[in-house]
Amino acid sequence: MQSNEHILPNGLRIIHKPTLSKVAYCGFAIDAGTRDEEENEQGMAHFVEHLIFKGTEKRKAWHILNRMENVGGDLNAYTNKEETMVYAAFLTEHLGRAMELLGDIVFHSTFPQHEIEKETEVIIDEIQSYEDSPSELIFDDFEDLIFRNHPLGRNILGKPDLLRGFRTEDA
């Protein structure tokens, strides 16, 4: 099936792929991943991915999550070394709702300091779970050997000591 592409005046690229399905997917692919982090920013891309769900200029965290769940949709995100993706899955009739919500969290997140403090501990728990997985650690060692001191050789999750130092103004 063919896809259509359109670039808005603000540079935002929209790709639309028609489907016969009643379920649609919509997302923002943000050209920023851990490869873009400085040494003292390790884990920031992943941290921001978590924080965008914690409040916007017009929504509290629970409003963000409920906005899609209330109509049977799903809202999620991931970060890798090349990009951060924020996306939703929903019934096609809720496309407008999904696009408005995604735009709000991508462009109007507020990164409240109290949420940063809570999310720091969540991510540190995630790091500790990750470090309990020998297969993950071997992969990290392998990337570190290949990329040496380049950001591509670093773990996406970051380091606990750096995470504890992140503030609202860093996001």
UniProtKB/TrEMBL annotation:
Keyword Protease: yes
Keyword Nucleus assigned: no
One Pfam short name: Peptidase_M16
Ranges for domain Peptidase M16 N-terminal: 21-158
Gene Ontology process terms (BP): proteolysis
Keywords of the record: Hydrolase, Protease
PANTHER family linked: METALLOPROTEASE, MITOCHONDRIAL-PROCESSING PEPTIDASE SUBUNIT ALPHA
Family from the record: Belongs to the peptidase M16 family.
Name by which UniProt lists this protein: Zinc protease YmxG
Native species: gut metagenome
